[in-house]
Amino acid sequence: MRERQVSQGVGPAWDFEAFVAGAAGRLLHTATLLTAEAPHDNPRARRLLTYAFAHTYACWDRMRGEDPYDRARQYLAVRFARGAWHKYGGLGRARPHHGGALAMLTPQQRLVLVLRLYEGVGEEQTAALLGLPMERVHAICDRATATLLHPPQGPAPAVAAPKVVPS
């Protein structure tokens, strides 16, 4: 009976392949937003996605009724948080990328903003996932949104002294 299922494309491996085919695009976009890399040049995002899929596949047989997309997204977020916060000293800015507006945010701000606004994860769930108080998640999201809406200005341009015209 098992041989027949495999030949017809039925079983856990096929289910996982179908899941990857359906979720890969959105999860890659999420990872690209997190890493603030350019969409066409995103090796860190692809590596994050590979780890998330590997972890999800390792848990595949034990997931009873659990949404595999949620599992992969959670692992993606946690793996990003560990790497970004440990590598860059917590809340500091990562190496500059040319990934657009999100590159000006700290890794923590990007993570909260992407989970809350792009992925639609609730404040309570985001707080629980990141191990932060709900008020902190709210404040981080507000600050990140404000930074995107009103980006910090660079140094003020030098103002030339007015020319004095003798009369």
Outline:
The protein is mostly helical. It is built from seven helices and no strands. The protein is elongated, with a radius of gyration of 22 Å.
Note the beta-strand portion.
under 5%
Give the structural class.
mainly alpha
Low-confidence runs of at least 5 consecutive residues: 1-7, 88-97
Number of strands: 0
Largest sheet descriptor: none
Distance between the termini: 104 Å
- The dominant shape is elongated
Q: How do the SSEs run, as a string of H and E?
A: HHHHHHH
What does the radius of gyration come to? 22 Å
Percent of residues in helices: 55-70%
Distinct helical segment count: 7
Average residue-wise pLDDT: 83
Task: Write up this protein.
This protein is mainly α and 167 residues long. It has helices at 2-7, 12-35, 43-59, 68-87, 107-118, 123-130, 134-149. The longest helix has 24 residues, at 12-35. It starts with a helix and ends in an 18-residue tail after the last helix. Residues 1-7 and 88-97 have low confidence and may be disordered.
Topology:
Elements: H1 2-7, H2 12-35, H3 43-59, H4 68-87, H5 107-118, H6 123-130, H7 134-149
Helix pairs in contact: 2-3, 2-4, 2-5, 3-4, 4-5, 5-7, 6-7
Task: Throw out a few tags for this protein.
single chain; 167 residues; disordered N terminus
